[in-house]
Amino acid sequence: MKNKPTVLGHVGSVSGAKISVRQSPAVSSGILIIGGKSYKIGQVGSFVRIPQGYHDLYGLVSEAGANAIPDALLSSVNGESERWMTVQLVGEIMGTSFERGISQYPNVNDEVHLVTESDLATIYGVEEQGQVVIGNLASADGIPVKLDLDKLVTRHSAVLGSTGSGKSTTVASLLRSIASGTEGCDAGFPSSRILLLDIHGEYSHALFDVAKVFKINPETNQTQLHIPFWALDPNDLLGFLMGRLDDKSLTAILDKIYEYKLCQAESHSHAGLNVASMTSDTPMPFSLKKLWSELLDPELKTWEDQARSVPALLNSGDADTVTPPKYKPHGAGATPPFINQTDVLGIRRPLDQLRSRLLDKKYDFLLHPGDWEPDLSGNVKQDLDALLAEWLGHAKPITILDLSGVPSLVLEQLIGAILRILFEALFWGRYKSEGGKARPMLVVMEEAHRYLSRDANGPSRTMVQRIVKEGRKFGIGAMIVSQRPTEVDETILSQCGTFIAMRQTNSADRSKVQASLPDNLTGIVDSLPILRTGEAIITGEAARLPVRCRVTLPHEGSRPNSEDPEVAKAWMTDRRSESYERLAASWRTQNPRWAAKKVHRTPISQEPIETMQREQVISSNVVSVGYDTDTQTLEVEFKSGVYQYYNVPQSIYDEMIKAESVGKYLNVYIKPEYPYAKV
Ligand SMILES: Nc1ncnc2c1ncn2[C@@H]1O[C@H](COP(=O)(O)OP(=O)(O)OP(=O)(O)O)[C@@H](O)[C@H]1O
Ligand SMILES: [Mg+2]
């Protein structure tokens, strides 16, 4: 024992990768002190080493105590005096490097050793290229946990855990580590290409310096998000625009769309397009307004004469402004005007729905997508290449598509469309230097249960299934983030090679995670409900070993906008005057940053609303400035008078105060952006 201080027991029985270990009586205290550090023996989730001559096997303790006694020995073992534990074999070290999987089994009575921190450092610390740091071992602070980036991306991954367990923070931390590296460890991957579907708008703040943000209602430093409707599968598009259609109408409409697309293809040369192999599904621009107007006309039309040669037109309407034509109402029986009988599909109601969609401001980003909006003849100012260049071709490693303003009605279709655009482009362009092989892409899907549910028949689920099944071959990887793994499609989860499992309290969800995990880890997975916030069990392809990891918490300014509200602190402050008018308005406009010209407040306490304290500044036209944190109001005293700017974030105020010229900053970043009033 003297020269083998790390021995903690011997192999008692071996069955497959599961072995039972009898603890030595010498370590009955349960604690070993090695190199001045004390180690608890038999901790579930800790490692053991089983030397086999030239190489060492490694295993994870999954059970300790009476449960760990092998069944065959139950009668002969004295449970009082003998201690047992169950160990799952996970890998081995041959030479210097650790490898998962084992080449031979241990024998009964082989020695089982404790794994010290320095051993762990050998397992985890081997310097290799292509590793990204996600955090530190939960049991040993000083040892970084690294993930293999190749495997993480190409074999797909899932981040699962209950609400508030730290998923978004983990994703933000990991993405930052990929994009800009970790202090003292590595320099990051500047050419990485990551697309993040940010459903709650949490990340733009966290990754502002390494990401380009697209949003429907963009704020300062964000770009307008456009998704051209004509890139969607027309079946999905029509479902959203017109509701359910019978087969006859659907076929007629799809034929029309095909005709428009064909016409567009014949009149403009599109590099690489073979007109003969076009379908209604080919992403070619066409005008929805024209479609609407051409479908509506036969529905409304009446004729002056029985031969139906002179239309009884009163007003021809206007496709561009989506104004319907007006015809004289038809007469009864044989009295003119006569009802139209050709091309009538009986789709007045679906067409009305299409019209209201076209006029609904909420859907402008999709139906009137800026330069990608086709005119009535189907011509667009910009084509798909410009969209792809905008999304993928910018200098930053991360693209955030902030979908927080997207009505939930279209979310699924939209994500399907986005993924389709990316998938098809990278798939077909896989041999090009912009394609997926040369510059692979990782798509991170937050809140995946919302659009990848088992019952969803929408395009996003189909697209993600394709990505997880085939993406590896042409460089698209998926990272699925969800708090409800039971609601996420089975095929998708089962294709994920790496699992980052965070605290999971719901037992149904937990069994789902357990069942999906690639490694056989009973015991460790049982600790899922007791993980601390920000702690994860990482297992699968990208991890060297299944590991319990404490994810690095990003710096304060780089955390996602999802922090728990500080209830006690908020409830302790004095009540201030409030304005519920702007709450309701924000809801109506579906814009959390909606701003009114002037907010009317109701005073709560007896005290009058305080006047704002202003600080003097040195500037040619600004005298003093003040800021109220609670109401996000900025007050500026110009030489010409005092103005208030509303809903100005604290960060903007801080930047303004530090700016070289306060006046210039006001002119560029505040005056054009925020509503104001003269006080
Ligand atoms: N590694 C960590 N260390 C310390 N605190 C953390 C860590 N990760 C997250 N937290 C804290 O936990 C809270 C919730 O984190 P987060 O928003 O990432 O959870 P989530 O799992 O994404 O929740 P949801 O499912 O509701 O989106 C935040 O207040 C965050 O600061
Ligand atoms: Mg989250």
Summarize the structure in words.
By secondary structure, this protein is an alpha+beta fold. The protein folds into four domains: 120 residues, no CATH class; 236 residues, P-loop containing nucleotide triphosphate hydrolases (Rossmann fold); 134 residues, no CATH class; 97 residues, no CATH class. It has 18 helices and 30 strands. A twelve-stranded mixed sheet has the order 11-10-25-24-23-12-22-21-13-20-14-15. A six-stranded antiparallel β-barrel has the order 1-2-7-6-5-9. Helix 11 packs parallel to helix 12 and helix 17 packs antiparallel against helix 18. The longest helix is centred in the middle third of the chain and has 21 residues. The radius of gyration is 32 Å and the shape is globular. The mean pLDDT is 85. It binds adenosine-5'-triphosphate and magnesium ion (MG). The site of adenosine-5'-triphosphate has 18 residues, from helix 3.
Keywords:
alpha+beta; binds adenosine-5'-triphosphate; 4 domains; 679 residues; binds magnesium ion; Rossmann fold
| Percent strand | 15-25%
Biggest β-sheet strands, sense, barrel: 12 strands, mixed
Distance between the termini: 83 Å
Please name the fourth-level CATH homologous superfamily of the largest domain.
P-loop containing nucleotide triphosphate hydrolases
CATH topology description of the largest domain: Rossmann fold
Strand order of the largest sheet: 11-10-25-24-23-12-22-21-13-20-14-15
